Amino acid sequence: MKTLKYIIILILFIIATIWSYNLRDPHLLPFRDYEIVSLLILFILTSVLALLLETKILCYSILFLSIILMTKTVITESYFLYVKSNILNTPSYLHRLINKQLIIGFNDISEIEKLSINGIAGIYITKRNIKGKSLTEVRHILSQLQLKRKQAGLPPLIITTDQEGGPVSRLSPLIEQQPALNSLVSRDNSSDMAFEYGKKQGKLLKNIGINVNFGPVVDLMPIKPVLALDFHTQINTRAISDSPQKIIQIALPYIKGLERNGITATLKHFPGLGKVNSDTHHFSAELEVPVADLITKDWLPFTILSSQTNSWIMLSHVTLNQVDQLNPVSTSKIVVDNIIRKQLGFTGILITDDLTMGATYNRGFCKSVLGAYNADIDYLLIAYDYEKYYDLIHCIEQNIEKLYY
To answer: Which of 18, 189, 204, 310 would you label with 399, given CA atoms 20 to 30 Å apart?
Structure first.
C-alpha cells in the first residue's frame, strides 16, 4: 500500500512537471482556458499527498520542487500576459511591420478587431471561431472588420479558410459541404464539372466575405497504405490523383471557377506530401526524392497551375533532404530563395502552413519563426493556436538584430 502511494505521487509529480515545462503547448489547446488552474491544483494535490508520507526527505523534496515549479508557472503565465497586453494595446512600429506578413486565427472577436487595426495582413476562419454563429452573423463580423480597416486607412483584410471539399470543409455546415475533388476524376466531363464546382464554392465563400481559400490539394495521391500515426494529414483522402496530368485537369478549371467569383486559390502542400511518411501536424517529416525527379512529376501541378492562375503556394513543414537537411521547407531560406524563387521562377505569393503544427513547433517555435521570416515568404500562418501570434512577435522583436544586421 505504501509503495502504491509512492507510485501515485511520483506519477502525479512527473505529469505536473512535464505539463509546466510545456505550458501553452498547441497540443494542449483544448485545456487552455483552465490550464493554469488545473496545473496548480495538480501541484497542490501532489504536495498534500507528499506531506502524508512518512519519509520526510522525499516529502520535503517533492514539496520544495512543487513550490518552485508552481512559482515558475505563475511567472511564465504572468510574463506572457504582459507581452500580450503590450503587443495588443500599444503596438510599436516594428510590431506593425511584422504584422504585414501575418495571417492568424482567433477566438475572441474584440481581440481580432484590435489586431486588424494593428495591421495584421489577414485572418483565418474555421468552425472553431464561428461556432454558434449564423451565416448572417459571420458575414456581418467580417464586413465590420473590413469597414474598420478602411476607416483606419489600411488595405482590405485577407480573409482565408480551408474549404477543400470532402473531409476538410472548415466552414460546413455553415455553407454547403461539397464532395472531395477526387470524386470528379473518373467523370467524362470532369473539367467542366470541376469548373462548376469551383464557381459554386467561390460564390458561397464570397457571400460570407472570404477572399482566399486554402485549396486545392495538388500533392500526388500516395500509393502506399495509410500510416497508423497519420491522424490528420490523411492525404490519401484529400489528393486528387497520383497523376500530375489528372490533377491539373481537375485543379485548373476548379481554380478558374473560384477566380470567377474573386476567390484566390492556394496550391498545397509544397514540396508535396504524397511521398512523406509522417503526419506533420504532430511529427517531423522528410522527403528523400531528388529535386530533378520532383520537378518532372511531383512539382508539375505547382508549376503549371501557378503559371496559369493567380494561386498562392502553401509551404509544408517537410524537410527536403536533398537541398536542406536542417530546416523544413516552410522555414528554409535555401529552398525558398534558391529552388522556388530562382530555379522554378515562382514570383507569386508564398504562405507557410500553420507554424503551430508539431513539425515546426516541436523543433523550437522561435527557431521556426525566424527561419520563415528570414526567407522570401510573403505570409506566415498561425491558424490553430492563434495565441502563438504573441510569441511570434516577441520572438522576432528579441532577435531583430540577427535578421537585419
So the answer is: 18
